[in-house]
Amino acid sequence: MILTPEQQALLDGAKGETMAKVVKTLVMYGDAFGAERMVPVTSKYGHTVISFGLKAIKPVYALYDQLLDAGLVSGQKFTADPKPLDPNVPSSLLEDLVFKKIMYTDQKPYEEQLRRLGITSDDDYTCTCYLDEVGNKPEKGDVLSWAESSAVVYANSVLGARCNRNSGIIELMGSIAGFVPEFGLLTDEGRKASWVVELRCKHRPEAQLLGSAIGMKVMEEVPYVKGLDKWLGTELDKAACAYLKDFGAATASNGAVGLYHIENLTPEAKEQGEALIREGAQVYVIDDAELERVKRSYPVVWKDPEAKPQLCFVGCPHLTMQQLIDWTDRIEAALRAKSLPQVTVPTVFTASTPVLKEFEKTVYASKLRTYGVILSYICPLMYMNNPLCKKKAVITCSNKLRTYTSARYYTEAEILSIITTKEAAK
Amino acid sequence: MKQFKGRVIVPGTCTAEALVSRGGFNTLASYQMALMFGDKQVKCGDQNNPDIYKKPMLGKALCLPMTIGSTTGGMVLYTACSMGKQPACMLFSLPIDSLAASGAILGDVWTEAKMPVVDGLGEEFLAYVKTGMTVTVREDGVVEVE
Q: Which of A89, A116, A225, A417 measures 20 to 30 Å from A340, CA to CA?
C-alpha cells in the first residue's frame, strides 16, 4: 500500500504510539484485501455497531480507554446501534438479574466512553441511523467508516454511499484516522454484480423473505435484482425505502451482502443499468414457490415447537415512522374485525428514539398503546441474546432476529393474525 | 502428510490439533456463551454448526472456509485474543472475509496473543483436513496436515 507522507508519518509515530497502532491496523486491514491506498472518510458522521456494555467484552473497553488516554477521539461524530436494555420491555425477575448483574454490567460506563469518543447524542442509538429523524444520512458517493450490516447495506444500496462490511472497533479506528483502505465496495469494480436475480412472483414478495433467499444464495456477492420495480415502483419513496431497509437487513444477515442493485430503482442501477452486471454473472430465479421453500427451511429452535407465543418483536431493523403508522392501522382493523380490545400476545414495536419522539406527536401513538403494543428503542437481538430467551416462545417478522436468536419467523400478515387471535388470548 | 500453500495474513508458526468447520464459522454465535460465562475450554456455542458445536476451540487449529454473521465478529475475535482464549491458528480455505481479517489483525496489533492466520488454502485443504489431525503452520504460509 502506498501511503501519503502524512499517513506514513502517523504510522511512524508522529502522533504517538497509539495512533501509530491505529494506522498499522488499518494498513494491515487494507493489505489483506489488496488495497493500494487510503481514501478520506467523507461522510459527516460515522456509525458504530458496538452499543452494549457487555461484561464479556471488557478488553474492548480497555482498548477504548487506551485510545482516550492517548487523546484519540473520533474525527467525526457518530451514531451507535440500539441499546440492549429498556425497562418498557417485559422481562422476568430472573431476566432482569441476568441482564443487569451478569451481562450488561458495563452499560453505563460504556455509554460514558461513547460520549467522550464522540457519539452525536444520547438519543442516537439505533440501527436505522440513516432515517431523516435521526439525521445520519450520507450523500451519494460518500466514503464511510461504518459497521452494522443492515445500515451498511442500506447506505451502499439505497443511498449510493461507499462502505465495506467493517467490523466493530475497525469502524471507529477509520473515524479516528479519517481515512480507510480502498478496496471492495469502495471501488467501482467491487460494486459490480456477480448475480442476477430474476423475480417471477405473482404476489408482492415479503421483503424479509426475499432478502433471506437472496442472501443465502449469493452470500457476500453483489446481486442485481430484476422485477422488483414492478412491486415497488421506480422512485425511492417512503414505502420503497422501508421495504429496502427490511430486504437489505435480511440479505446481510442471512448472507453477507453489503450492496445490492434494484433495476430501475436504486441510484446506481438507474444510472448504469445492466452495465453493472459482470460478464458471466450467475442467475437465480425466484418465484412464489421458491420463497415458500426458503421459509419452510428455517429450523424451529423453540424448546417446545408447539408452544403458544409469549412475546412478539416487530422492528429489527428499527421501524420507520410510516411503518409505525401502517402497523397501527392494520392492528386497529384486525382487532375491530375480531371484536378484541387489545393484542393477545405481548408485542413490542421497536424504533429509534428520534422516530418515537415524532411518532408520539401523532394520534397513532396513543392508539397503539390502547391496543396494548409496547413501544421501545431496544435492540431485540440483544434482548434475546441470553440463555433464558431460548426457553421463551418469541415470534417475529424479522429475518435478522430469526437468524441470530431462537425467535420464530412469520410473515407480517401471519404476525398480525397471531397477535390478534382470540385463541392466543386464552 | 500433505502440504497446502496459502497467503499469510498474520505471520507465525504453530502445531496444533485440527478443528474443522465445513460451513461458515459464525464468530459471535461460536464464542458468545464461552466468553460470557468463562468457559475454560472455550467450547463452541453455535448450535447451527454441527461440525464443531460443543467442541473445545481453545488452542486448536481452526480450519474453516470463511466466517459469517454479525459485524461484531472481529470485535469478538479480538476479545478472545485479549483473554488468551483464541484458537492456535485460523486456516481459511477461501480468501479471508473482512470481519475475520479485522479480528485477526486487531488481535495481532493490540494484544499479546500469537495466532497465525493463513487464507486461500483452497477447497482441497478443507476436503482433506479432519478434526483431530495434526496441523503445522510455517512462516511462509505452508500448512502441513498429517
A: A89
ipTM of model: 0.95
| pTM exceeds cut of 0.90 | yes
Residues of A in contact with B73 (CB under 8 A): 167
Residues 17 through 46 of chain A touching chain B, CB cutoff 8 Å:
21, 24-25, 28-29, 32-33
Gap between the Cα atoms of A395 and A332, Å rounded: 20
The CA distance from A25 to the nearest CA of chain B, in Å, is 6
Q: CB distance B71–A49 less than 8 Å?
A: yes
Q: Residue ranges per domain, chain A?
A: 5-186, 191-296, 311-425
A32·B9 Cβ contact <8 A:
yes
In tens digits, chain B (146 residues) has pLDDT values of 999 999 999 999 999 999 999 999 989 889 988 998 889 999 999 877 999 999 999 999 999 999 988 899 999 999 999 999 999 999 999 999 999 999 999 999 999 999 999 999 999 999 999 999 999 999 999 999 99
Cβ–Cβ contact B99 with A under 8 A: yes
Reading the block at residue A109, the C-alpha cell is: 460506563
Q: CATH topology of A5-186 equal to that of A311-425?
A: yes
Question: What is the DSSP track for A291-321?
Answer: HHHHHHTS----SSTTPPP-EEEEEEEEEPH
Q: Does A154 touch chain B (CB under 8 A)?
A: no
Which one, of A204, A243, A197, lies nearest residue A221 by Cα?
A197
- Total structural domains within chain B: 1
Find the domain containing B78 and state its range: 2-145
Instruction: Specify the CATH number of the domain A5-186.
Output: 3.30.499
Which residues are CB-contacts of A52 (< 8 A; sequence separation ≥ 6)? Answer: A81, A83, A84, A104, A107, A110, A379, A382
Of the candidates A56, A147, A220, the beta carbon closest to that of B36 is on A56
Structural contact between residues A155 and A145, judged by C-beta atoms closer than 8 angstroms: no
Asked if the C-beta of B131 comes within 8 angstroms of chain A's C-beta atoms, the answer is no
CATH of the domain at B57: 3.50.30.10
Nearest CA in chain A to B46: A404
- Report the top-level CATH class of A311-425: alpha beta
